[in-house]
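Hi all, posting the design record for the shared folder.

TITLE: backbone redesign
STEP: 1 of 1
STRUCTURE INPUT:
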């Protein structure tokens, strides 16, 4: 196993552990991360509801999870893949594939569009 792969696995495990700690804090304490954009403007950002979505998924309540943030719910597997891939590219110094860059920019564009539309149309 190459050094880049080992570092990628290490980093993914660290990020996963941080995610588990954050989940436990938000699930079992009154602490909840608030969206600054929503607090200041009343508008929902593209990622509003993501924490509640993940919490619902852990309870296997997929219908409620989908209602909290449809875009992230549908693209969550891609987001996980992309995060791991970016960590791998960074750790192994491998070149970033052009096709991956295109898909990432399309995803980012759709993410922003979802953020706009969810404040105009209740989606």
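Okay, here is what came back for every position:
SEQUENCE:
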């Amino acid at each position: 196993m190459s050094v880049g792969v080992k570092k990628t696995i290490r980093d993914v495990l660290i990020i996963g552990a941080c995610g588990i700690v954050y989940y436990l804090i938000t699930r079992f304490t009154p602490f909840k991360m608030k969206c600054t954009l929503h607090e200041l403007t009343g508008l929902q950002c593209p990622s509003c509801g993501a924490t509640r979505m993940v919490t619902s998924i852990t309870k296997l309540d997929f219908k409620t999870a989908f209602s909290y943030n449809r875009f992230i719910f549908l693209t969550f597997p891609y987001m996980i893949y992309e995060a791991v891939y970016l960590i791998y590219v960074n750790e192994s110094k491998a070149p970033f594939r052009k096709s991956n860059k295109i898909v990432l920019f399309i995803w980012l564009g759709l993410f922003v569009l979802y953020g706009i539309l969810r404040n105009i149309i209740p989606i």
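COMMENT: The two ends are 45 Å apart (CA to CA).
Let me know if anyone wants the other runs.
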